[in-house]
Every structure is written in structure tokens, then in C-alpha cells.
Automatic annotation (TrEMBL):
<dbReference type="GO" id="GO:0005576">
    <property type="term" value="C:extracellular region"/>
</dbReference>
<comment type="similarity">
    <text>Belongs to the glycosyl hydrolase 5 (cellulase A) family.</text>
</comment>
<feature type="signal peptide">
    <location>
        <begin position="1"/>
        <end position="18"/>
    </location>
</feature>
<keyword id="KW-0964">Secreted</keyword>
<keyword id="KW-0378">Hydrolase</keyword>
<dbReference type="GO" id="GO:0004338">
    <property type="term" value="F:glucan exo-1,3-beta-glucosidase activity"/>
</dbReference>
<dbReference type="GO" id="GO:0009986">
    <property type="term" value="C:cell surface"/>
</dbReference>
<dbReference type="GO" id="GO:0009251">
    <property type="term" value="P:glucan catabolic process"/>
</dbReference>
<dbReference type="InterPro" id="IPR017853">
    <property type="entry name" value="GH"/>
</dbReference>
<keyword id="KW-0119">Carbohydrate metabolism</keyword>
<dbReference type="GO" id="GO:0071555">
    <property type="term" value="P:cell wall organization"/>
</dbReference>
<keyword id="KW-0961">Cell wall biogenesis/degradation</keyword>
<keyword id="KW-0325">Glycoprotein</keyword>
<dbReference type="GO" id="GO:0046557">
    <property type="term" value="F:glucan endo-1,6-beta-glucosidase activity"/>
</dbReference>
<keyword id="KW-0326">Glycosidase</keyword>
<keyword id="KW-0732">Signal</keyword>
<dbReference type="Pfam" id="PF00150">
    <property type="entry name" value="Cellulase"/>
</dbReference>
Length: 373
């Protein structure tokens, strides 16, 4: 079976991000960084420089081999989830790496393996270009590069990103392991002040993915859903260039971190804002909330009444989770950030830990009732 563009209409996405697997983010995986010898570095690329290429390849391969296992996929399935979103860097396609760039090598084999594990369990996969050539944002370890200036927004780096997308499109359609990989996101969280992102990069990425599929004679029903950040992200609206015809086979990605939202930092306000989330601005449907968490504002997060390790606080976090789920399920669904973290008793960023703590129920059907929206 090939889950693809026609399927999202019937698949309500309930998923988790596999953050820090193929792009390590030190803030959420400090233990891993320490054990790799990279706790003093700011990004994956800096870690490679610090360790040297060969030692870095060994350290990263060990990480890819152990950080997410088949047991994780079994747990994801057992918790009622049907989707994983997998953030990757363009350096998966090693031919694209310039001599003066430094990235770990050998990741593709592990991505293939992961896709196969997901397919074996009928778990849908969203593959997300999370680390773009030249970095799509400055000083953001999620891009895999800690740079003072983002240089993604240039013709040669757009071209490299498009080559990555073409390569992955072809691999997805010609490799059995990817039979449940149905969505490809062209870039995660770009900067907001580059008009040619939409007119050039989005338009070209879309056309080139479709061109590869035409060359491969992929039936319309089996084409990939091509995903863009939504209009609410603030970097323009892909619908302006790809249209809103459902046959275009696109989907949108909303990142809804209420932790950073401009709302009063009270428990009622968080619930209200959760319930009131509206998707689809600018004709962007279907929209998946591809990143969100149950974290709260930096000013309050350490206060006793918000402390996740205090027994009496769990009920509210359950409601906060449920209110978001019930709102996001009015759209195409949701993907929590993230599955697994190394933040100790702070399960606000870890679905796995929140389930273990009894905060997130295993029966997702309970969400609407618990939300009280
Ligand atoms: C990372 O872990 C090391 C070793 O446990 C610790 O010394 C360091 O403070 C941690 N860093 C952060 C940012 O938590
Ligand atoms: C593309 O990105 C690389 C960083 O990896 C940068 O060195 C280069 O200058 C960028 N290209 C342009 C034309 O800015
Ligand atoms: C939340 O919504 C309820 C119901 O509409 C309202 O009574 C309450 O004042 C709101 N609270 C906040 C903090 O916005």
C-alpha cells in the first residue's frame, strides 16, 4: 500500500516528531552531546568540526543506530499514533556538501531503515527538510549549522535544496522501505523577509518534485503531498504559487508553540488559546500542526504551580494537551515536538515521557472530553 496525496483526506494525522535524531539539538539532548564529546558545541556541524570527520562519523552513526529503535516505533503505534515527522538535513545527500562544509556522513542508511520500520507498522512518514543549504535561519541549531547569517536565500543554495528534494522524491518512489512516506516538506521555519522564497524556491521545489514523479510515471493517486509552512508562519503563502486546488496535492504546516505566544501566562489563558486555535488562514488547507508542545512561558515554567514534577500539576497539563489536540483535529491533525528528549522530569517536550508520567492518555479518543473546549 502506498499512502499518499489522496490519503491525507481520510487520515487524521496524530504523530510525533523524531527531533534530535538526524539533526541533534543540544538543548533537548544534552546527555547525547556529552557522550559524543560535543557538549561544548552549538550545532551538529560544529560537533563534526570539533571531533574531526572520521570520529564524528563514528559518533553520529552510533547515535543514529541507538537513539530511535524499533521499540520506539512499537510504542508510538501502541499509543495510538499513526505518523512520524522526520527532520533531516540536506547533507543526507552527501554529493551536495561543499568542501568547506562539515556534516556527519552515512545517515541515509539509517533513514532508509527508519522508513522501513515505519512502513512495517503502517506508520505514515512526513519527511522534512529541516536543515537547508546555507542555513535557513541564523543562530539556530535546528538547521544543523550555527551561523551568524542565513545564506539559504540565494540561487545556488535554492538549487542544492531542490536537488535534495528531487533525490528524496525519487528514492521514496523507488525504494520499498518508503511505501508509507507520503509527505515531503520543502523547508522548515524559513526566515520571514525573503519574498523570493515563495516566488522562486517554493515554485521551483514544487515543479521539480512533480517533474521527477512524471518522469517516473507515478500515478496521480500516488504522488507525494508537498508541504509548506503555512501563511501564519509569516514567510508568505505557498498557495499563491501552487494554488488551492485539492488536486495540487499540497499540505501546510503550522507551528503552534503557545509557550511563545503573546497571551497572558495563566492556566485559563493557555486553555482558551488552545481551544481557539484556527487553522487554514489564506486558504491553507489542509493544515497539519507539525510542531507544538505542552511547554509554557519561560517566566512561569519553573514556578511551583507549573512544575511538571509536582503531582497536583499533572491534571492541568493533561487538559492543555487535550485542548490543543481537539483544536488541531479540526484541521488535518498534529505532530507533537518531540517524541523523546533528555530533559529529566520535564516531560513538557516529550510525548513518550508524558505518557509514562500519566499526563497524556494512551486512548486519544479521550482528548475531546478532557479538553472542555
Ligand atoms: C550537560 O550535561 C553535563 C554533564 O552531565 C553538565 O555538566 C552540563 O551542565 C549539562 N549542560 C546543560 C546545558 O544542561
Ligand atoms: C550557500 O551556503 C553556503 C554555506 O554552506 C555559503 O558558504 C554560501 O556562501 C552560500 N551561497 C551563497 C551564494 O551565498
Ligand atoms: C477563557 O474563556 C472563558 C469562556 O469563554 C472566559 O469566561 C474566560 O474569561 C477566559 N479566560 C481567559 C483568561 O481568557
Amino acid at each position: 500500500m502506498k499512502l499518499s496525496l489522496l490519503v491525507y483526506a481520510t487520515l487524521l494525522i496524530r504523530g510525533v516528531n523524531l527531533g534530535s535524531l538526524f539533526i541533534i539539538e543540544p538543548w533537548m539532548t544534552n546527555d547525547t552531546c556529552v557522550s559524543m564529546g560535543c557538549d561544548k558545541t552549538k550545532s551538529e556541524s560544529d560537533c563534526v568540526v570539533a571531533l574531526g570527520q572520521d570520529a564524528a562519523n563514528n559518533a553520529f552513526q552510533k547515535h543514529w543506530d541507538t537513539y530511535i529503535t524499533e521499540q520506539d516505533l512499537d510504542d508510538i503505534k501502541a499509543y495510538g499514533l499513526n505518523t512520524i515527522r522526520v527532520p533531516v538535513g540536506f547533507w543526507m545527500l552527501e554529493d551536495l556538501i561543499h568542501d568547506d562544509e562539515h556534516f556527519p556522513q552515512g545517515g541515509l542508511k539509517y533513514l532508509d531503515r527508519l522508513a522501513g520500520w515505519a512502513a512495517d507498522r503502517n506508520i505514515y512518514v512526513i519527511l522534512d527538510l529541516h536543515g537547508a543549504p546555507g542555513a535557513q535561519d541564523a543562530k539556530q541549531p535546528f538547521t544543523g549549522q550555527y551561523v551568524s547569517e542565513a545564506t539559504f536565500y540565494t540561487p545556488p543554495n535554492y538549487t542544492r535544496a531542490c536537488k535534495f528534494l528531487q533525490f528524496m522524491t525519487s528514492r521514496i518512489h523507488t525504494t520499498a522501505a518508503y511505501r508509507t512516506t507520503g509527505m515531503l516538506e520543502v523547508v522548515n521555519e524559513p526566515q520571514r523577509n525573503h519574498p523570493d522564497l515563495v516566488s522562486t524556491y517554493y515554485a521551483t521545489a514544487y515543479a521539480q518534485i512533480r517533474a521527477i514523479e512524471s518522469k517516473l510515471n507515478i500515478l496521480d493517486a500516488h504522488r507525494l503531498t508537498i508541504q509548506f509552512m503555512d501563511k501564519a508562519w509569516g514567510a508568505g503563502n505557498a498557495a499563491d504559487v501552487v494554488g488551492t486546488n485539492p488536486k495540487a496535492g499540497v499540505a501546510y504546516d503550522r507551528h503552534n508553540y503557545l509557550k511563545y505566544a503573546n497571551i497572558a501566562q495563566t492556566k485559563d489563558a493557555y486553555i482558551n488559546a488552545s481551544c481557539a486555535t484556527v487553522l487554514g488562514d489564506g486558504g491553507d488547507t489542509p493544515t497539519v500542526v507539525g510542531e507544538w508542545s505542552i511547554a509554557v512561558g519561560s517566566k512561569v515554567q519553573a514556578q511551583p504551580q507549573w512544575d511538571p514534577t509536582k503531582e497536583g500539576n499533572k491534571e492541568w497539563y493533561t487538559r492543555y494537551w487535550a485542548a490543543q489536540v481537539s483544536a488541531y483535529e479540526k484541521g488535518a491533525g498534529w505532530v507533537f515536538w518531540s517524541w523523546k528528549t533528555e530533559l529529566g522530569g520535564n516531560w513538557r517536550w516529550s510525548y513518550k515521557a508524558a505518557v509514562a508520567a500519566g499526563v497524556i492518555p494512551k486512548d486519544l479518543g479521550e482528548a475531546t472530553g478532557l479538553a472542555g473546549c
